[in-house]
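Q: Is it fine to ask for two folds in a single conversation?
A: Yes, each is treated on its own. Send the first.
Q: Here.
A: Result:
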Amino acid sequence: MRARRLTLAVGAAVALFVAGLALASCGSGDESAGTTSDVYATDTTQTTTHTETTPPVEEPTVVRIVVVNGAPKGGIVRESVRKGDRVVLVVKSDVSDEVHLHGYDVSRDVASGATVRLPFTAKLPGRFEVELEQRGVQIAEITVNP
């Protein structure tokens, strides 16, 4: 009988211990009361969110020029960019000629009915003429601001 009482007492003690653990591990719903799992989640978040982001690469400024009958459609195209900007001149021409960006010495031949691209980085401040070289016709003016 004594062994039976001892077994009941130990069983009751274990049951109370398990019930106490269950109550202790239940959250109160109060977010200000941190638990071990909250700390762990915060620590994990802090270690996994350290990622480096690279700044977005800026797209180049595209200057479109259409040449009709050997002259710029709508008049001389004027564009301003900042020093350091990447720029692409896109020239569509109905005449064959050499498209030349003065000051940068960038030039490309363009065939009649074709399109040519002249990419450059605006390193020199100032005002620069874009010309149909053989005809001596200005088709654009690029201003590079410091």
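Q: Second one now.
A: Result:
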Amino acid sequence: MTGVQVFYEGRVQGVGFRYCVRQLACGFDVSGWVRNLPDGRVELQACGEPGELELFVEAIRESEVKSHIRKEESRSIPSFTSRGFEILD
């Protein structure tokens, strides 16, 4: 297990971005969360097997919200314990 942290920039707040990400997570063996940041970005933290995480992040890139993403920054983080995938406020 490993973790990934991804920051999305663009028009990613107020367009259903977090809900789309949560829905996509249901199709992958990943857990974690997604939340809006005060600076207008969206942060995603997820953990799972490396290949599964890569497929999940790629699915976000190819999803209905892809046109809202202007920039994506990701980095590996240590795995963490989480149940399911949720939207944080």
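Q: Anything structural to flag on that second result?
A: Two points. The chain is about 25% helix and 40% strand. The longest helix spans residues 50-61.
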